[in-house]
Q: What sequence folds into this?
């Protein structure tokens, strides 16, 4: 909100401003100091988000209007526009009520909706608050949709109390897996602050990634954003040099699309096993074996067709030299 507009709105919080208020009336809800066409949600909605307390200064704490300034009711105006529950309806201010509900998300607000509907829609462009929300809850290509609690803490807002110009960061168990301390630090950050995220989800515990602290407004992630391909750990390089695809050892997660060669993607069913806080090793059936992380003094190894069922212990080595 511009400094001049804040000044104009603040002006009417005192009785001495009544004359100025009455001499500059415009359209509803643009009463008093509001400019013409202020009824457009694109105008007063953005101002309300920036400082809802200023609205309450004139329209009362409940937004019912009246009071010494005889202001109109925000509640009635919004109800007339089809939103009688605007103060507890998450998609009144953000999100996309037309998006497919995901039963894997908790119910929030009143009327209750699944929380994935409350994420800002992509149509809002590159605004910092929008960022990668949709990529996390709708179009995640390499993992299951991310629960809101992984980034915003376990208690999601259900009313207007959170409209204070800030965004709550509260990391969950997956973001903190592997003894990672995610950043930015938990707590409230300014809603327009440019952020980068460093956590387990983006490769904080992995090696070889090209961008393990991605910008919230950055480009789409790829495999090599979070880890090398292959990762420069254990004996990945040896296996890849022998022509083995990722799916040989990560069969439940990776797959090679029909008609391609040496191109691996995360399978639809494998998204739940990717970026979940656990290193999942499932050998491809043709390998005919099992992985045992306790072999070789905890260095790990597999008993399989590839190793003559003797496992790496046959030559005294494990996955992690």
A:
């Amino acid at each position: 909100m511009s400094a001049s507009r804040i000044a104009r709105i603040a002006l009417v919080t005192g009785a001495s401003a009544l004359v100025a208020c009455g001499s500059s009336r415009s359209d509803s809800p643009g009463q008093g100091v509001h400019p013409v066409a202020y009824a457009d949600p694109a105008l007063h909605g953005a101002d309300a988000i920036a400082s809802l307390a200023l609205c309450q200064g004139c329209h009362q704490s409940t937004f019912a209007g009246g009071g010494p300034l005889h202001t109109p009711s925000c509640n009635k105006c919004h109800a007339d526009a089809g939103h009688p529950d605007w103060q507890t309806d998450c998609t009144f201010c953000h999100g996309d009520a037309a998006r497919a509900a995901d039963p894997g998300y908790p119910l929030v607000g009143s009327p209750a909706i699944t929380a994935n509907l409350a994420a800002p829609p992509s149509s809002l462009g590159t605004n910092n608050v929008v960022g990668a929300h949709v990529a996390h809850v709708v179009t995640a290509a390499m993992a299951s949709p991310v629960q809101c609690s992984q980034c915003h803490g376990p208690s999601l807002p259900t009313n207007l109390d959170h409209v204070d110009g800030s965004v709550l960061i509260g990391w969950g168990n997956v973001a903190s897996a592997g003894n990672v301390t995610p950043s930015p630090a938990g707590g409230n950050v300014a809603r327009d602050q440019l952020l980068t995220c460093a956590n387990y989800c983006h490769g904080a515990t992995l090696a070889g990634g090209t961008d393990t602290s991605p910008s919230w407004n950055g480009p789409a992630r790829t495999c090599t954003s979070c880890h090398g391909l292959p990762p420069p750990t254990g004996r990945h390089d040896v296996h890849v040099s022998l022509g083995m695809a990722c799916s040989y050892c990560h069969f439940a997660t990776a797959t090679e699309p029909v008609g391609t060669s040496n191109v691996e993607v995360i399978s639809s069913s494998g998204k739940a096993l990717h970026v979940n806080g656990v290193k999942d090793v499932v050998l491809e059936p043709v390998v005919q074996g099992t992985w045992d992380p306790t072999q070789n003094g905890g260095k790990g190894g597999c008993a399989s067709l590839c190793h003559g069922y003797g496992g790496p212990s046959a030559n005294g080595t494990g996955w992690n030299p």
The two ends are 59 Å apart (CA to CA).
